[in-house]
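Feature request, filed as a ticket because there's no other form

It would be nice if the structure record came with a short human-readable summary line next to the tokens. Right now we just get the raw output. Example of a typical job, pasted below so the devs can see what we mean:
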Amino acid sequence: MKLGLAIDLDTCVGCHACATACKQWNTSGTIGPLTDENPYGKDPDGAWLNRIRTYEVDASPHSKTVNMPLSCMHCEDAACVTVCPTGASYKRTEDGIVLIDQDRCMGCNLCAWACPYGAREIDPGSGTMKKCTLCVDRIYDQNLPEDERQPACVITCPTKSRVFGDYDDPESDVSKLNRERGGKQLMPELGYNPVNTYLPPRNPAQRPQGGRMLGKVKQIVNRIIKR
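Raw output as currently delivered:
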């Protein structure tokens, strides 16, 4: 089993719902709490496990805003695990999730320096390293309905741009999307083989048209224009 995310850069609107849901869940999860410093002041700071970067691509008038969520990639050959001097960072053999043992972490920052994705953050309160866990305490919770056993970011995303599943299963949603949309790894040339993939933005002609409702809206707009 190789669990991970497929993130659709075409439909992510940069609303930060995923980051907020991640913060809320993990604050009381296996690695919590996640400390905030000066949260209502001029320069708020703290530990966030999921951050969204925003870029403009192409030139006007054909430019496009691309929102790119970044979190732990759960690499198959994770440099953060290799450099950890205490063994606090480790990769689970049963599902490929990379985790941090908070009792063994001494906050030396070596793993953060080794991670090329900036996915690890030192918690100013505990002095230990924090990162995305794929909500491991949630996805295996037998007390939750099966359709809710997903990372908090996936459940919260209003545009469904985040999909969770098993990349080792060719029939899983993440595997199918990866094939159909040509999913890309981030910086594959480094050789860490990140599990998470990004679905690249599509040309307007390739995008789904939104069904009957959008068709009716277009008809109304066309009528207005012709008047």
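Something like this underneath would help us a lot:
DSSP finds seven helices and eleven strands in the chain.
The first strand starts at residue 3 and ends at 8.
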